[in-house]
What does this fold into?
Amino acid sequence: MLVAGGVLFVPQRAHTPQLGRAAGSPGSPSTSTDRALPGGGVFTGSRCGARGYHRFPAAPASLTVEGSSGPALLLAAYGYQRLDAGRQEEFTFDLRLSSGSGTPMVLSAPLGPEGVAVEIEGPDGLVAAAYGLPATIEGAQHTADGKGWLVSDYGAVAHVVLPVAALCPGVEAQALSSGMMVRTDGANTITGPAPYTVTVSVADPEVAELRRATGMQPRGEVLAVTNQIPAHATKPV
It folds into this structure.
């Protein structure tokens, strides 16, 4: 995925393309109010500056990484873009979904009954948050009633957009995009975690049922992933 005029991040790889790093801090978040977002979803402005907030509280205990068994949600690519002066800036997320077994995973539309949740947190607490975000799905069949998705072990891709309206007051988008990137040295080798943690999550009772039926861990209905690379992936090979 090439992000024109922005920054591209590809998590869980040894090398991360850097197509334009913004300098400086993105700023400190100020508390706002919850409000509807253009295109769908809700900005959780009342939580700006909070620490450890997640729309789905089980998200931190429900993270999946490359090679996880059972139902999985992974970040294929994510980034910031502003395609032209007449279009709002936005953050984009390409998510890979898999049932992790021979049994398809059934997800309600748009992607779980409450849609996709995204939180971005840094040294000053929560700087961006939204839930109920819509998703564009590729590679999954509709359920028989047309109201959901059948995700196989081969997987599907969901494209999610987080508009800059979901950023807390006082936070600058392009500078934040650099903070979402893992630390690298001059050889583009990963040296540390990203200053800002992105958590993307969905929840659906059918996820819990599939985990129960297949004996997979963790239990529960939440699928979640972050931009932080597992510790073993940062070690030299």
